[in-house]
Design brief:
By secondary structure, this protein is mostly beta strands. Among the domains are: 147 residues, Ribonuclease Inhibitor (Leucine-rich repeat, LRR (right-handed beta-alpha superhelix)), CATH 3.80.10; 119 residues, Leucine-rich repeat, LRR (right-handed beta-alpha superhelix), CATH 3.80.10; 164 residues, Rossmann fold. Helix content is 8%, strand content 33%. It is built from 9 helices and 52 strands. The strands form 13 sheets. Strands 1, 2, 3, 5, 6 and 8 form a 6-stranded mixed beta sheet that branches. The longest helix is centred in the first third of the chain and has 16 residues. The protein is elongated.
């Protein structure tokens, strides 16, 4: 009995194996020809009769009792089917195998699909995308005009939308790093692009129009990919710079660019690419980041260059990274500078950036860097930038509306030359996203730089600790707080800031006892100031504090231990006389900034506080010979008071 069962099984096994069709067999199911393939799949193919009318390809068929998944369309399957008017293609078809699948289907008018993402991922050989003839794509019955792809998609295949003339706009997510050759040629969107580099999302797609001879193309920083055949057969391309953000380079991207001699790649970790990417660029040199030459030489697709050179930026070199121009400095630092293109929109300056494997810290902004950038709307400045070098950095940035910083104390310590604080035009300062209106500085801070808050009209109040002894020129001019101060002496904390309003002629100013500093340019160019009394508590006098106060004739300083000051503090005060505490004249005479006075005399505060003009009741000063003096001189001076009384004062 057991032998009989074995014999019967051996008879029926061949019959079971032959159920369905043979691999390679062409069958016709419902008017469509299929070639049977492995794993119960079939490919649409050509047959003895041409396809006509509206052809609907199913995702599954059944033949001889066996189900098959429809996964491919073979070469020339619909070639010269001039009677074909529309075609419906299921998402199960992911491969179009060979050229000319839809060649000369001149009456094809519509392509119907159900899965846009599956269509996007498909590569179409030459003549094998029905859209080349149909021009109109319908997804679930809706005509595609504005193409929006979902975030998370990574690929758009070769010729995916080639010839789809209805597509007028595209919205491609940054997740897409791979775009196939000619994917958008023949679309209304592509036709509307201006000549020059065209990008699909963040992928460099192609150069449209006629490229100039010996062109040097620098791809945008942040570019994630280079499309297949992007520059294929372009004989005008001499050099290409590929940013380090690129993750994918399509097949034949630079195929037969026979004039290209230089490829500069910022990719630190080179990835394999197709051998034909640079095929035909026989004399090209590859510049790559420091220390990466061995990696490039051992990575497929990068192995065929004649020369490999490392990129090293030198001090003084000008580079562009992330749309910002930099000048390289010493010790891996860089400063922001102007460039060939004006800055516009919202500019974010990074604290650091990477350039061909080397990290640079951004420490300054150079003069006129943003000059006349009327399209600049906001700027973000990192705390690493501590130098604003030269005037007019932000001059005429009329469109600037906001300045963003993260470190208020670092900003305070910074000196801004004329026209170089963006707040002069923006007026609004944000610290970690919060608008600054009530300015409170931390105890322990010692300095507020020149023009630190110049033009910041939102600041209505300030709270300055007594640790601040140095306030720069015009630091609070143009703030609502400064505008609200009454005329007369204005103090920033315990620093004499300026005299607001019109000073009367021949004015004598006695600074408040306990004053710790005099701001830069506090009295600059004031022709009405005749005398100033500086209390002994002062620890700092800013640059140009009394510059060109040409009516100043008497400076009385109670500072016992004079500290160096800038030579321009009293520059232009040519007639000024300096009175200093008894026993300190010799120290003043050798101290920077003080030694420039022609007359330095000692005085005893217990004798007379000051001889400093009409505001203190002084009408005139005479010598012992009766000669009228402009200011006191050595020896005995006769002082005539407004009340008619007189007194003698000894100047040592």
């Amino acid at each position: 009995m057991k032998k009989l069962v074995i014999i019967l099984l051996s008879v029926f096994l061949p019959i079971m194996a032959n159920a369905g069709g043979e691999i390679g067999q062409v069958v016709n199911v419902d008017g469509i020809y299929y070639q049977i393939d492995e794993n119960n799949t079939v490919a649409v193919t050509r047959g003895s009769e041409k396809y006509t009318g509206d052809v609907v390809i199913p995702d599954m068929i059944e033949y001889d009792g066996t189900p098959y998944s429809v996964t491919k369309i073979k070469a020339m399957a619909f070639s010269k089917c001039t009677g074909l008017t529309s075609i419906t293609i299921p998402s199960s078809i992911t491969r179009f195998v060979g050229d000319d699948i839809f060649e000369d289907c001149v009456n094809l008018t519509a392509v119907y699909i159900s899965d846009l993402e599956a269509w996007c991922r498909t590569d179409f050989p030459i003549g094998s995308n029905p859209l080349e003839y149909a021009h109109h794509l319908y997804v679930n019955g809706m005509l595609v005009t504005d193409l929006t792809l979902s975030d998370g998609m990574t690929k758009i295949g070769d010729r995916a939308f080639f010839g789809c003339s209805d597509i007028t706009s595209i919205d491609i997510p940054s997740s897409v790093t791979s775009v196939g050759a000619y994917a958008f040629n023949g679309t209304a969107w592509f036709d509307s692009q201006p000549d020059g580099m065209v990008y699909v999302g963040r992928v460099a797609y192609t150069y449209k129009g006629t490229m100039p001879y010996d062109a040097n193309i620098i791809l945008d920083e942040g570019t994630l990919g280079i499309a297949g055949s992007a520059f294929q057969n372009n004989s005008h391309l001499m050099a290409i710079t590929i940013p380090g953000t690129v993750e994918c380079i399509g097949r034949a991207a630079f195929f037969r660019c026979n004039s290209m001699i230089t490829v500069t790649s910022a990719i630190v970790n080179p990835f394999p690419i197709d051998d034909n990417v640079f095929s035909g660029c026989n004399v090209a040199m590859l510049y790559c980041p420091a220390g990466t030459i061995p990696a490039y030489q051992s990575t497929p697709g990068w192995q065929n260059f004649n020369f490999y050179l490392e990129i090293v930026a030198k001090v003084g070199d000008v580079i562009r990274v992330g749309g910002i121009y930099y000048e390289i400095g010493e010790n891996n630092t860089a400063i922001v500078i102007s460039g060939d293109e004006k800055y516009s929109g919202d500019v974010v300056i990074p604290a650091q950036f990477d350039y061909y494997g080397t990290t640079y810290t951004v420490t300054g902004i150079k003069f006129m860097a943003f000059y006349n950038c009327t399209g600049l709307t906001s700027i973000t400045i990192p705390s690493t930038i501590t130098r604003f070098i030269g005037d007019d950095i932000f001059e005429n940035c009329w469109g600037l509306t906001a300045v963003y910083i993260s470190d208020l104390e670092a900003w305070c310590r910074t000196d801004f030359p004329a026209g170089s604080n963006p707040l002069e035009f923006a007026h609004h300062l944000y610290v970690n996203g919060m608008l600054v209106t009530d300015l409170t500085l931390s105890d322990g801070m010692t300095k507020i730089g020149d023009r630190a808050f110049f033009g910041c009209s939102d600041i209505t109040s300030i709270d300055i600790p007594s640790s601040v002894t140095s306030v720069g020129a015009f630091a609070f001019n143009g703030t609502a707080w400064c505008d609200s101060q009454p005329d007369g002496m204005v103090y920033v904390g315990r620093v004499a800031y300026t005299y607001k309003g019109t000073m009367p002629d021949d004015t004598s100013i006695i600074l408040d006892e306990g004053t710790l500093g005099i701001a830069g340019s506090a009295f600059q160019n004031n022709g009405h100031l005749m005398a100033i009394t500086i209390p002994g508590t002062v620890e700092c006098i800013g640059r140009a504090a009394f510059f060109r106060c040409n009516s100043l004739i008497l400076v009385t300083s109670a500072i016992v231990n004079p500290f160096p000051i800038d030579d321009n503090v009293f520059s232009g005060c040519d007639h000024a006389h300096l009175r200093v505490p008894v026993g300190t004249a010799d120290i003043y005479r050798v101290t920077d900034g003080w030694r420039n006075f022609a007359w330095i005399d000692e005085w005893d505060p217990s004798s007379v506080l000051s001889v400093d003009g009409k505001q203190n009741g002084v009408k005139a000063i005479f010598s012992m010979k009766g000669e009228k003096l402009a200011q006191p001189s050595k020896g005995i001076n006769i002082i005539k008071m407004e009340d008619g009384k007189g007194k003698k004062v000894m100047i040592k």
